[in-house]
Amino acid sequence: QSVLTQPPSLSAAPGQKVTISCSGSSSNIGKYDVSWYQQVPGTAPKLLIYENTKRPSGIPDRFSGSKSGTSATLGITGLQTGDEADYYCGTWDSGLSAWVFGGGTKLTVL
Amino acid sequence: QVQLVESGGGVVQPGGSLRLSCAASGFTFNNHGMHWVRQPPGKGLEWVAFIRNDGSNTYYADSVKGRFTVSRDNSKNTLFLQMSNLGVEDTAVYYCAKNVGGKYISSFDYWGQGTLVTVSS
Predict the structure, then answer these.
(1) Is the pLDDT of residue B101 over 90?
(2) Number of other residues whose CB lies within 10 A of the CB of residue A34
């Protein structure tokens, strides 16, 4: 069981908007910044969002991040078929003294 | 451009050892902490270890503590993961990843392509 809880799967139609939640606790999300990663099957993960809300260069503004209390959210607007992937949140956990990832959310664009 | 290239994966028997390497280029290696992250087949990401930019501190997941050792050679821009007493549960693709900062764990902005470690008799 992951310390960070994400929905296992989500689906939405092209052009729609989707949000992926990441729920944690006071020892992780409540204290530290959250980052989000996209992993297209068969490839390495890619950084999408860091420090809760910031996008690396090259990441379109269709992707956004937010954090409130012990939860974080990844938003994707204008869904494209190329957005089909697994999405992971991650942060440091002071209780475990370890970095933790959420269990991942499989996004299907149909 | 940033490149991270892992090597050293393969098939090893339970109880055996293996050493992974990650050759880095395209950035100032000794300015950045580095991670190992693994992914068992069909499963999610699991953080394994972190080493600070100067090698002064290391951190490990409980699942590998005492069995795995992360190290680096800043003169050769190379990261290592020495794995011992391997079990079937260690079977995974192992990725090296670059930390955004030097000393403190933040986010992972570049990842290698991964190397597969299979523990099987």
Answers:
(1) no
(2) 27
